[in-house]
Design a protein that fits this description.
With 191 residues, the chain is mainly α. Helix content is 65%, strand content 0%.
Length: 191
C-alpha cells in the first residue's frame, strides 16, 4: 500500500532493514508447501471443479459475461488456444500469467534441480497439472476481456475488469504472502 506513496528516506531505510531474508529451512519449507498446495488445489478434481464454477459465477457477476452465453465462452476458448489479439492485448496489460499456479507455485517448482532428479516425473505431472489449472483461469479472463472489448469498453478497463473478476495472485499483500508461505506458522502455514 506504500508502493505509490512518498515515504521519508529514513523511514524507508528502516523498512528495508525489516525485509525478511529466507534461510535454508524456509526455502525447504516453501518448496514442500508448494508441493502440498499443488496436490491440494491444482491436482484435486473437486477443487478444480469448484474453481470452474466460481470462474463462471465471477465472470457473470463482475465480468458481465453470463454463463449461458455459450458463443462468447467458445470465442474465449479459441482466443486462448490461438493466443490471438485479445489474448496478446490482455497479456500486454499484465493480466495473464498471474493466476494461482503461476503466481504461487510455478516459480518454486522450477527451483527444484531437474537434471538427474528422481522426482522429475512427479515434477512434470505437477507442472502439467498447473498449466491446465492456469489455462482454466486464463480462459475466464480472456473471455471477460474479449466480450467487454467487443462491447466497446477500453482495453485498459476491460483488462482491469477481467482481473477484478478472476484474482491476480501477484497482487497479494506481503504479509498475506508470508502467512501463506508458513512463516511463523505450522508446517503447512495458512494454505
Amino acid at each position: 500500500f506504500l508502493s505509490e506513496m512518498y515515504v521519508h528516506p529514513s523511514i524507508a531505510e528502516d523498512l528495508k532493514g525489516m525485509v525478511y531474508v529466507p534461510q535454508l529451512a524456509d526455502s525447504i519449507m516453501i518448496k514442500m508447501l508448494s508441493l502440498w498446495k499443488t496436490g491440494k488445489v491444482v491436482l484435486n478434481p473437486p477443487t478444480v471443479g469448484r474453481n470452474i464454477i466460481t470462474n463462471f459465477f465471477m465472470a457473470d457477476v463482475i465480468g458481465r459475461v453470463p454463463p449461458e452465453n455459450v458463443a462468447i465462452w467458445i470465442q474465449g476458448a479459441m482466443s486462448l488456444k490461438n493466443k490471438d489479439k485479445y489474448y496478446q492485448l490482455l497479456r500486454n496489460q499484465g493480466k495473464i500469467g498471474v493466476e494461482f499456479y503461476r503466481g504461487e507455485i510455478e516459480d518454486i517448482l522450477n527451483t527444484f534441480p531437474s537434471e538427474k532428479n528422481p522426482l522429475n516425473v512427479m515434477l512434470t505431472v505437477l507442472k502439467k497439472g498447473g498449466d491446465y489449472y492456469s489455462a482454466l483461469e486464463e480462459w475466464a479472463k480472456v473471455t471477460i476481456f474479449r466480450k467487454n472489448v467487443e462491447d466497446r469498453m477500453s482495453i485498459e478497463d476491460a483488462a482491469q475488469l477481467a482481473e477484478d473478476a478472476i484474482f491476480n495472485y501477484s497482487k497479494v499483500a506481503p504479509l498475506v504472502r508470508q502467512l501463506r508461505q508458513g512463516r511463523g506458522q505450522g508446517p503447512l502455514g495458512q494454505a
